[in-house]
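Researcher: Re-running this chain for the archive, since the previous output was lost when a drive failed. Same request as before.
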Amino acid sequence: MSPTDRKKDHIELALNSQTTSGNLDLYYEPLLSAHPNESTDISCNFLKKDFKAPIWISSMTGGTEKAKLLNTNLAKVANEFGFGMGLGSCRPLLESYKRKEDFDLRDTIGEQAFYINLGIAQLEVLLFENQISKIQAICDDLHADGLIIHVNPLQEWAQPEGDRFKQAPIETIKSIVNQLDMKIIVKEVGQGFGPNSLISLMKLPIAAIDFAGFGGTNFTLLELARHNAQQNGKTHTNYNLKYIGHTCSEMINWVNQNIEQSSIKCREFIISGGVSDTLEGFRLQESLKAKSIIGMASSFLKHAHDYAQLREFTFSEIENYKLAKCFLKGK
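Model: Regenerated structure tokens:
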């Protein structure tokens, strides 16, 4: 199967590869604020960029013809409302620039935070082949602000065509951080990070950690569904793999327990994975003792085929966040 066909399957199945997350746990204080208005400030500085709203469009779509439309609309709405975006996997650009237009969005997104995205398996190969200069070249060609590294061992295992890691991903990440002078975000793909993995990342001088926790689009579940549909899969794969992972709430607890340690170098986080709206995102932010923004993928993807619909959705989510800031408080 070609990478393009695989990405088409990913887009079509992502909305059906969801798991469930927790409920709201906030104090409602109806007496202590006026309604939000034009002057209600929800801006922040994140990744050394100014955000008008603490929102991040998490990596989802890669290089397919459909992704060109989706990525363009997503970049356009990020520009209009003033927040950041991570591309889907830029793996096709390692081989050829034929599909560069699918990813070439700097003019559309303007000055907003904009990151390329490559998998840990591809980075491992580039390291072994002494070709990490390709990463800098892609980043420069797309005028991106930095690199997202996605770590996905269970997804790769579930793919018949999946890659196999030759070394622990943390070793690859350390090498990339040491050899590349750029901002780096590390994310999972829907199953989050256990405490030891999370703390190992926090000790590295990376720009941010994207939780991509259990509760949203689960790419291991997605791969298992894709193979079933095609009657072409790993019949020996244990389907309990789709239940493995950690929620944002779990990871927030681990961050809070360790954030004050002197060895911690990464102190910015994208809260994603099971965050279907900004109300849930606000709740999670209120419980995290570190700088954060809210990452959403499938919620944006649902509306990305039509810009008017996407714009309406985004406006509503920002208004809901403002309302939450006025009337809801963390416990």
